[in-house]
Design a protein that fits this description.
Radius of gyration: 18 Å
Helix content: 10-25%
Number of strands: 19
Largest sheet: 7 strands, mixed
Shape: globular
Order of helices and strands: EHEHEEEEHEHEEEEEEEEEEHEEH
Length: 265
């Protein structure tokens, strides 16, 4: 029995003798099936052709896969005095990555913005003794590999510890969530692509589907803005290497919301 990964999105599926027949995540209109058709890869096959990389990204340890695989997102280790949390996930776990996280105090939990980044979340949890994986209950239909460590939380906010709060923003997916990080030296939000940092690194934007270029409607964007209104933040940390707004991010966010709403009016 093998837990296959979808080649297109990287999400890992429950163990089967043969590859699954389809990937519901890629068949959804927010993603897409490759022109070549659905394809699958085992963890061993992935490890034979790709490697996990760790690097500092604007003061936070990030994890990625090279050469680029699937969507190509990074994971980020959020270190707090109350325990460390892995934000978002990648489709590969290595002994070196586990050792580095343990050297920095271990891992207390995993939290993931939305289903496109669920990837190998079960393997990451198992590597640290079954730490909880916080996903919003509104997205439970997109869990392709059920696992006892998954916590399907409900409501609008959830404090993981005194430094970290999950905020359900919706938009990209009904349960899309961001992570607010209260810290010395400036608060931050980690957003996945619920709030997408643009290449200028001075603005953010919003989409229902990125690859299929379907924008969010005004009501959804206003809801994201309302969800984040109570929270102060100086930085926004996006889903890919170097896509961060460091400093004055609240001003950039507010200006981006106004710019977006004006553009779609």
């Amino acid at each position: 029995m093998t837990c296959f990964h979808c080649v297109q999105c990287g999400v890992q599926f429950a163990a089967t003798e043969t590859p699954p027949g389809n990937c519901p995540i890629c068949e959804d209109e927010r993603q897409f099936v490759r022109w070549e058709g659905q394809a699958w890869i085992t963890p061993d096959e992935l490890a034979a052709t790709h490697g996990l990389v760790m690097q500092d990204d604007a003061g936070v340890l990030g994890f990625g896969i090279e050469p680029r695989f699937a969507i190509g997102q990074r994971a980020q280790l959020v270190q707090t005095p109350h325990g460390n949390v892995l934000w978002d996930c990648i489709p590969m776990v290595t002994d070196e990555a586990v050792a580095e996280i343990n050297r920095r105090g271990g891992l207390a939990a995993i939290a993931i913005s939305h289903c496109h980044f669920y990837s190998a979340m079960a393997e990451w949890s198992d590597a640290f003794g079954g730490v909880p994986i916080y996903l919003h209950a509104d997205d439970r239909q997109w869990i392709m590999r059920p696992h006892p460590s998954i916590v399907s939380w409900q409501g609008e906010t959830l404090a993981i510890n005194p430094s970290l709060t999950l905020i359900r923003c919706g938009g990209h997916f009904a349960g899309s969530q961001v992570l607010h990080w209260a810290r010395d030296g400036g608060n931050a939000i980690l957003t996945g692509d619920t709030v997408q940092v643009t290449p200028t690194r001075r603005h953010v934007s919003f989409m229902y589907s990125y690859p299929n270029q379907i924008p969010l409607n005004a009501a959804a964007v206003r809801r994201i803005a309302a969800a984040l209104e109570p929270f102060d933040f100086d930085d926004i940390r996006g889903a890919w290497w170097d896509l961060n707004i460091i400093g004055d991010a609240r001003t950039a966010f507010d200006a981006s919301v106004a710019r977006y709403l004006a553009a779609i009016a």
